[in-house]
Specification:
It is built from seven helices and four strands; from the N terminus they run E-H-E-H-H-H-H-E-H-E-H. The protein is an alpha/beta fold and about 200 residues long. Strands 1-2-3-4 form a four-stranded parallel beta sheet, with helices on both faces.
Length: about 200
């Protein structure tokens, strides 16, 4: 189970081979909880000007062969509250025109062709998945149709021969980390996770 950026870990594990091409050990199931687009979240939090400034600095570092060097907090507007190298920032920010950041799995504007290379490959692993998207996630722009987005991801998984758990979908009333939400919202998430685990165990 991955939360937030941990959802990238789930996706990587499922669709990316180890270095050397070896397959990873099979897992019984995968849960993506609060899987948001880092690119869209950064634009939402920073605004276009600060986002572009951070991207420009990171691109200059990479061009100079300093991709693994840590960026200053000033150049990143302190948005991550932690040191980050230039390569990692570009992976998360996934700047235009190609939006080809290696961690850009969950942006709402990605074309179907791109999704087929990620969500569409999950079916070949034989691993069932559950997507638990927070209905009131503060890091998702209001312009994003959350229901349509999750349904699109689920469609790609099924078209690739994969299995989406029946508890997958929008967790109504949930914010990004379920902080200060009503007890029934937390219990909804808990029951979805428990149900998924039970169904996986029984399969």
């Amino acid at each position: 189970m991955g939360h937030s950026t941990g959802c990238q870990d789930v996706m990587y594990y499922l669709i990316s081979p180890r270095k050397g091409g070896e397959e990873r050990p099979k897992i019984d199931g995968g849960i993506m909880q609060a899987s948001v687009s880092d690119r869209e979240a950064l634009l939402l939090l920073l605004g276009v000007e600060a986002y572009e400034k951070s991207v420009e600095v990171a691109q200059e570092y990479v061009k100079a062969g300093r991709g693994e060097d840590t960026l200053s907090m000033d150049s990143t507007s302190g948005f991550l509250h932690t040191p980050v190298c230039a390569r990692r920032l570009l992976s998360l920010a996934s700047p235009p025109p190609d939006h080809d950041g290696e961690d850009d799995f969950y942006s709402s504007d990605l074309p179907d062709e791109r999704l087929r290379r990620t969500f569409g490959k999950i079916g070949s692993t034989g691993t069932p998945v559950s997507i638990l998207f927070s209905g009131r996630d503060q890091f998702v722009p209001d312009s994003v149709d959350k229901v349509a987005l999750v349904e699109r991801w689920e469609k790609m998984i099924r078209e690739g021969g994969g299995t989406v758990d029946k508890g997958s979908g929008i967790v109504k009333g949930a914010n990004h980390d379920l902080e200060d939400v009503p007890e029934e919202v937390t219990q909804d998430l808990v029951e979805r996770v428990r149900g998924f685990a039970e169904r996986v165990e029984a399969s």
